[in-house]
Amino acid sequence: MASLQLKKIIKDFGPTRVIRGVDLDVDDGEFVVFVGPSGCGKSTLLRMICGLEDISSGELTIDGVRANDTRAADRGLSMVFQSYALYPHMSVYQNMAFGLENTGIPKDVVRTKVDAAAKLLRLDPLLERKPTQLSGGQRQRVAIGRSIVREPKIFLFDEPLSNLDAELRVSMRGEITGLHRRLGATMIYVTHDQVEAMTMADKIVVLRAGSIEQVGSPLELYNSPNNKFVAGFIGSPQMNFAPVMAGHGDSIVTAYGETFTLKTESKPASGTALTLGVRPEHLTLEKRDGSLAMPITISGVEQLGGHSLLYGTLPGANPGADGPRITAQVAGQVATKIGETATLYAPPEACHLFEASGEERAVR
Amino acid sequence: MKALNFLTRTRSGRSMDWTDWLSYTYLLMGLFLMFGPVLWLVMSSFKTESALNEFPPSFLPYGQKSVAVPGEEKMKPVYRVKMPDGTTKELAELRRIGLTATLIDPARPDDLIRVNIKDREPVREFKLATENYTDLGGQVKFGTYLWNSVFITVIATILTLLFNSMAAFALSKYKFSGRSAVFLLILGTLMVPPAIVLVPNFLVISELGLLNSLWGVIWPAIATPTGVFLLRQYMLTIPDELLEAARMDNASEWQIYWRIVLPLAAPALAVLAIFSVMWRWNDFLWPLIVLSKNEKFTLQLALNAFQGDLVTQWNYLLAMTVITLLPITIVFAFLQKYITQGIASAGVK
Q1: Which residues of B touch A103 (CB under 8 A)?
Q2: Which of A24, A307, A343, B222 has its CA 20 to 30 A from that of B333?
């Protein structure tokens, strides 16, 4: 168990900079999830933490000790790989014992530790099997078991669930968070799946193109995203975006001519182009006072029983042209059909505003 | 049963199509062409020297029947004799003087029968001249030759696997500048004909004082570009994540090579081992140059030396040839699956 600090971490592959100065504190016992689209550098960052990639510049400290030049094996971390990376020619027991044997621990101690880890992960009946004789979920547990026996300071997971089917993924998610609770260990988990991030993390780190976009608890990110990217990345279905313009005072004018009031602290100048963001689950079909009306042409309906998804397009800036696509998740079942028009209402407390250009930072 | 089903398979699965006739005829002809001479060799290796010189030659090894006669130390040859009364009898010949042969009936050893040699015919029976094999040790230093061959084959194969796999490991799993240049250089040596490096190799071996030493045959043979290429291609398919996992597991680079990469490259190593055994066992030219003392000869050299200037003892030569063929045949029979796999996966012969 340990804490971890990253200070201005940079990684260059030749002339390409893939990690652009990352600062991050991971506290003891925290479950931190790195999330971002593919190619954002989250796996590279994880590999730099565990020592499989060199750090081009910046400082990595584990428990307050600089660890930039410490060998991967000596950092006291363990890693669960996306492909599990189980040694195919060794039995489950040998797979779990390999790391301990290499450190010269007596055989009986190795036996005790492996047995304990196997029991924890319900692997004890499988110890003599080869990895090829195991199911995906079992392999996953062996890979985790291999980490546990080494009693690492920090557990690292590199997209460990992406090779499993949807059902197994949900149950393994539960197992990993359960493990985190029982061991109380510091864990860093990389995923591109925001649902995994939301359900497992104490702290989510959203990465894009080698930089941290926002760090916070799942609900912080959901409720008050720093910018349009984080807003769009966290939450499923994705947040809806529509171009708007700041009017006089607190008024906001949409591209299709609707005006409504939205209080902001920074009071953007009249005429500033902005992006309005509202989550599908906050849109309703019932009109409420002060809500923004969004007339959409329905292009798709998905009835899921408990709730329904409506897909449609807003009117564009010019008459006849299509505007941005809108998704709404409304409670219950709806009678709306494709081709019809419907009016959705967005309550002002659920509306986000972002700058329309530059870093697209949140205005509200 | 499975083999029989396989051998009687037809195109439609029912009766023989004309294409079946064609392919089976073709295959049988191929089998006869390729296997016939080997079969003839094996049969001939069981013939006595005199049977080998017979004309017309027989396919099966025949020898003259002989029986034990009371009062005589040696077995006596049996003849079919036309008796003066017109009957024929099988009798054992005691001796022959001029045109008269003295024969005896083993059942009644007291009566000597004298007949003209024209009236008797040797009785022939199927008989394996196993003495061709059992006497080999006495005829030549067969044990020494066999030991030399086995020593060179085994040691050279082990060293080939070790050195080639280390080179392949470095070339496939480490990133260093000049890696592809080194790899191309190794592959490039494939284009140098062996005859060209023969003399330089000889000079090196001679300067190192390894002439007439088995190590002089082994050392120049162990680094093979084919082996490095074959193993490298296979090792490229071993995921890097395994090596990284091992690195996280506190394994040294040597342990990664020895405990992770080598066991996982076993199929490719098996292929190279088979190739290496065949190369070293069948090698003739290089041992001929390095080894000139009789007691250092390999089996292949001994076979060559067996063909004397004046006399060639064909029966022993053939027996020894069969023994020399055996290891390769066994290797092929049991490991042919790996051989075809290896050829298919590496694209080398």
Answers
A1: 250
A2: B222
